[in-house]
Amino acid sequence: QVQLVESGGGLVQPGGSLRLSCAASGSIFSADAMGWYRQAPGKQREFVAIIRPRGSTGYGDSVKGRFTISRDNAKSTVYLEMNNLKPEDTAVYYCRGGPDYGYWGQGTQVTVSS
Hints:
The protein is mainly beta. The protein is built from no helices and eleven strands.
């Protein structure tokens, strides 16, 4: 059974940084694309970042240059380093991955506020 468990969310001031983690189990992690999405209240879930099995990455326009996705295959974990956070980054952040990119984590709340 594939499980994705996010951690690292919290409250941070504008301009601050956070690092999210997503620990995966139940699949061949190194063969899976892994991604981050987010959903703010009243808005649709939006794409944040993706890292493919060979390490290539992609980012949503709103986070380019501020967020960095990375993976540690030995730990079956994907990370999202978030810098220069803005109030509009406030959302629940979800990890996505597993076989056929078909699994989601439960989400972790990120709140950017002074």
